[in-house]
UniProtKB/TrEMBL annotation:
It comes from the Bacteria. PANTHER family: FERROCHELATASE CHE1, SIROHYDROCHLORIN FERROCHELATASE, CHLOROPLASTIC. One of its GO terms (molecular function) is lyase activity. InterPro entries: CbiX-like (IPR002762), Sirohydro_Cobaltochel/CbiX (IPR050963). It comes from Streptomyces violaceusniger. Signal peptide: none annotated. Keywords: Lyase, Metal-binding. SUPFAM superfamilies: Chelatase (SSF53800). This is Cobalamin (Vitamin B12) biosynthesis CbiX protein.
Amino acid sequence: MTRFTAQLTTQLDRLGHHGVRRGGRDRAPTLVAVAHGSRDPEALRSVNALLDRVRALRPGLPVRLGHIELNQPLLTDTLAALRGEAVLVPLLLSRGYHVKQDIPDAIAAAPHLTARIAAPLGPDPLLAEALHARLAEAGSRAEAGSPAEAGRRAAAPHRTGGVVLAAAGSRDPDAALDTARTAALLSARLGGAPVLPGYASGSGPTVPEAVRALAALGHDRIAVASYFTAPGRFATQCASVAPGPAAAPLGAHPAVARLVLRRYEQALASAPLSHPAATVGV
């Protein structure tokens, strides 16, 4: 057991079952999952499936959803309907404007709440695990054959080729740093295969540019890992330019559900809830 794991286990033991601190609050603070929102109807279905997994992992924990834009319920409406204590967990994969500005602004507009903002989901080894699984799924679906052969072919792009980590992009340099850290984690999970970030917007190389960079290095089997929480325009756009397997977004992968709870628990363990809201680990 690592030092971090031991410390986290001790902290969670102090919190008690369902995040209720022994001798303290009687009800666990509400976990408010903050999604970006998308016009793609699959996005809302994917986020709801993820939150169903979270609820299954922690029965009795109140879990609510709020969107920054484009989907109902909006975060401001979710917060307006709540009372008591809440921990906002951004279903976002890096630091950036939404984490640093939009979510704190929503909390500031809800002075009746006692709340904290957890760190975004990324970077984290659990995301690398989910990305690895999605890449394997894409490879095994793309090529037919026996189960053993399909497994070898699914792994082939990881061993002999490269991977583009397709992300939304941001002008915030912290977002680029976070995405680069995830690329490094995924590379390690893939046994050292090269992983280059490519972006749908903002600064930095586009997905086609990252593909060309890998090809210039001699990698002729290139997969695209979809570093998006849910389906949407950017995920579709990035998948459309993949020269090889294009993985599905993270979606309701079990590792992502575990990570949502990890961020919630880390926020609770960091300090007592207070208002105005504090941001943990951002």
